[in-house]
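The instructor's notes for this session suggest beginning with a concrete chain rather than abstract definitions. Hand out the sequence below and ask the class to guess, before any prediction is shown, which regions might be ordered.
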Amino acid sequence: MNHDVPLNTAHLARCVRTLESALVMLARSPSNSVEYEVFRNAAIKGFELSLETAAKLLRKSLKPYFSTSGAVDRLTFKDVFRHAARHGLMSVEEVERWFAYRDNRNDTAHDYGERFAEETLTLLPGFVEDATRLCNRLGHADD
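After discussion, reveal the predicted structure:
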């Protein structure tokens, strides 16, 4: 398999655009409104979906580096990102940020409180930048 074959990143690109739109609409909504809650929830779900989609794409991009695709499929989320750094697909600093995103996502799965949701929102602008960079690095978007 050619290591330079771009992946179809259209789904990730769409997830990130949806997340960006939710953040824009959230910023326009009064913080005590139902609309604010709707857009906050949409942003958090967009974050979760983008995070999972990015990991799936990274798994695909790592398959040429392993003797079997099953070996890649057995990697944990964080191991996928560690191997991405090892093979030059991401920097160590980027991987550390993705670990923080994953840790936050795992926490959101257990704590849907308002305070926690607001903490998650502070990560999202940086996440959008990182997800967009990864999307561009891994392939092409055929929308």
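Then share the key points. Residues 13 and 132 are 7 Å apart (CA to CA). The mean pLDDT is 88.
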